[in-house]
């Protein structure tokens, strides 16, 4: 099986860049050229309203779960975005960050000992919920619990983690709908039966630029997300986040799904 990069599908917002799909298949794209710093600068220097809406949904979902203190969490395709991993911080004893791209792996390694100040603004959104306020020093806790692994979504071991997140990954590995479904299945089945998860997707994406490089995407909607999760998850709730102030051309908003890993 070819190595498939995990990549969050946002954008660096290049002016005048029209959406198009590259002719290369996913395993022909050089994912190591992903510019982590450009990605963060465009997407995460401040908390956007759409991200805030997603964070509130995910925050309240995880806070409502009955998770053991020794739980092990995984964030699949961490890339250069820490807020999905931070959503699980109060509920786990160990946090695995699963990422294939070499530039992003190095970025994560720099963030683990003392993450940048902008992520504290994201943490403030979570702190509206008491479980997060109980974490006195999120930087120190993150540093003590987080561990990065350089690996593909398709290398995830089955039935290993107690909770998980995967944000803007499955929709942005290629323009192939079958790969999208395989990635969703690999993520959910990496969780133990009954384990809670949250996943986010760009809606109807036509592809995206980061740091001058073009990356592929697959156009999915709420129905396709629901269909991909149906064989492997229970209690799924899929919600659309309106477009609002768009990051770029060529997408129709964001989608967030919560649920539990199924028994099969």
Task: Give a written overview of the molecule.
This protein has 264 residues and is an alpha/beta fold. It has helices spanning 36-43, 49-63, 83-86, 102-111, 118-126, 130-133, 138-145, 177-189, 222-229; strands at 72-76, 94-99, 146-150, 163-167, 196-202, 208-210, 213-215, 233-241, 254-261. The strands form 2 sheets. It has a 7-stranded mixed β-sheet, sandwiched between helices. β4 (163-167), α8 and β5 form a beta-alpha-beta unit. It is globular and about 40 Å long. The relative contact order is 0.21. The model is unreliable at 1-9 and 11-24 (pLDDT under 50).
CATH homologous superfamily placement: Vaccinia Virus protein VP39
**First CA to last CA: what distance?**
23 Å
Using only C-alpha atoms, the radius of gyration works out to: 17 Å
Question: Which outline best applies?
Answer: globular
The CATH architecture designation is 3-Layer(aba) Sandwich
CATH level 1 class label: Alpha Beta
**Helix percent band:** 25-40%
């Amino acid at each position: 099986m070819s190595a498939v990069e995990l990549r969050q599908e946002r954008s660096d917002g290049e002016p005048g860049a029209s959406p198009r799909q590259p002719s290369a298949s996913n395993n022909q794209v050089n994912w190591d050229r992903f510019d982590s710093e450009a990605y963060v600068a465009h997407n995460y220097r401040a908390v956007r309203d759409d991200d805030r809406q997603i964070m509130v949904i995910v925050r309240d979902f995880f806070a409502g779960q009955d998770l053991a203190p020794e739980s092990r969490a995984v964030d699949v395709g961490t890339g250069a975005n820490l807020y999905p991993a931070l959503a699980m911080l109060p509920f786990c004893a160990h946090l695995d960050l699963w990422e294939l791209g070499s530039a992003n792996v190095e970025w994560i390694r720099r963030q683990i000992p003392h993450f940048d100040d902008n992520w504290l603004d994201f943490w403030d959104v979570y702190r509206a919920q008491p479980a997060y306020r109980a974490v006195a020093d999120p930087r120190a806790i993150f540093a003590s619990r987080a561990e990065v692994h350089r690996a593909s979504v398709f290398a995830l071991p089955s039935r290993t983690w107690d909770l998980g997140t995967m944000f803007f990954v499955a929709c942005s590995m290629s323009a192939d709908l079958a790969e999208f479904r395989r990635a969703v299945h690999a993520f959910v089945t990496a969780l133990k039966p009954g384990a809670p998860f949250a996943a986010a997707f760009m809606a109807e994406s036509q592809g995206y630029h980061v740091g001058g490089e073009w990356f592929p995407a697959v156009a999915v909607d709420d129905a396709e997300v629901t269909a991909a999760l149906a064989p492997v998850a229970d209690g799924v709730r899929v919600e659309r986040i309106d477009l609002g102030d768009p990051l770029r051309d060529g997408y129709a908003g964001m989608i967030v799904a919560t649920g539990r890993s199924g028994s099969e």
